[in-house]
Design a protein that fits this description.
alpha+beta; Heat Shock Protein 90; 5-stranded mixed β-sheet; two-stranded antiparallel sheet; elongated
Length: about 280
Amino acid sequence: MFWATVTLTPIFSAEGQHIGFTKVTGDISKQKELQDKLAERQQDVLEHKNVELEKINSDLDNFIYTASHDLRSPITNIEALMTLLKDELKETNCLSAETENILQRVITSVDRFKHTIKDLTEISRLQKNTSASQSDEILNVQEIYEGIVEDLGYLTKEHTCFIQTNFKVYQVKFSRRNFRSILYNLLSNAIKFRSPERDCIINIHTRLEEPYVVLSVRDNGIGLNERHQEQLYTMFKRFHDHVEGSGVGLYMVKRIIENAGGKIEVESREGAGTEFKVYFKADV
């Protein structure tokens, strides 16, 4: 038994009649042996790389957890000391408008740092793919939406937004925490990035597109150009400085939904608005 290549060529007579074949058989056992060795070596390299990547990911997760844990205490102390300093300056009548402005900037920076630490912890959780199906439950979309709107009251009070809903699918089987995080991020972004040139109108609806339940959040805000859309889900990537944010929200949304076997799509036009479509596996 050996590995071979076989070539058959038809033979014709002078009159054009088919009278047989020529057969050429080439022994390629050595070539096959070399191919197998090369494939085996490549597999060993891939397995080694995978082991290295798993170790790197584990080290990064441990670093993020340790860093975020160890930074919480000193940053909380700084925040408390700044508040104490502000009160002390007030009592001694040493708090000028300029000093108060500087103190407030420090406190704001500390608060932003706290949010960054929180985001890093959340990213570490997603990297470990902890959105386990055990935590999935039957969710009432309307109920979660109403809770989010209540939490976003500070945004809707400052800026009037007309939100229209149409939940054709009113139940979804998913992690409550993760579903809420997805809808919260998409809705808060739609409010934050509204257009100053027109009334803010947001449409939220769900529908069934087998094998998915689709959640759509569409706004008429400032929109995104094509270059920004390509970088949309990059960690810590921000495209506008006129609103607060860390550039982590959409990265986390994408990781959450992809970890659960779904997907996310975006359609946007600069100056016209954006629509996000999130596809959940239709278990309900």
